[in-house]
Amino acid sequence: MIFILMIGLLVVSKARGNCPDGFVQFRESCYHFSHSRETWMGAQVACKEAFFPTKANLVKIDDQAENQFLFRQAQATRTEYWIGASDLQVKGVYRWLNSGQEVGTYFNFWIYSGNPSGGPEHCMEISLNTNNVPFWNDQTCTDFQHFICETAAK
Ligand SMILES: [Ca+2]
Ligand SMILES: [Ca+2]
């Protein structure tokens, strides 16, 4: 666990030259791990407006490496985070906010407790089980949660 924590901190403290204040870099993107909590929609508005002139969006997970990077941060901070997908348009079909691309067609981490569990839950988060193991979860969109914003690195 300590080893995982150290790796997480190492990744956070490295390479912030190409990112705005408050963001950390991983490959071609910059990420902000929020200190405040918002609803899922409030989080997207915050990503777009809080860092003016930088415009960010709720994070879109493009591949396994990016997913692992985000999972490590969630583990290191023991925090659950909103990410940028929902099934608000078509129930049961999770799509990323801007691209409209479907979630998890070539990899996915819907691995615990039968998620997406549906019902009143339509927004996607990185959740943690009781052993601090991250997984994707659908959650009630009006819950107030931490969130991750992403913008392209310069
Ligand atoms: Ca991304
Ligand atoms: Ca769920």
Automatic annotation (TrEMBL):
This is C-type lectin domain-containing protein. It comes from the Eukaryota. Keywords: Disulfide bond, Signal. The keyword Disulfide bond applies. Residues 1-17 form the signal peptide. It holds the Pfam family Lectin_C. It comes from Dreissena polymorpha (Zebra mussel). Residues 26-150 form the C-type lectin domain.
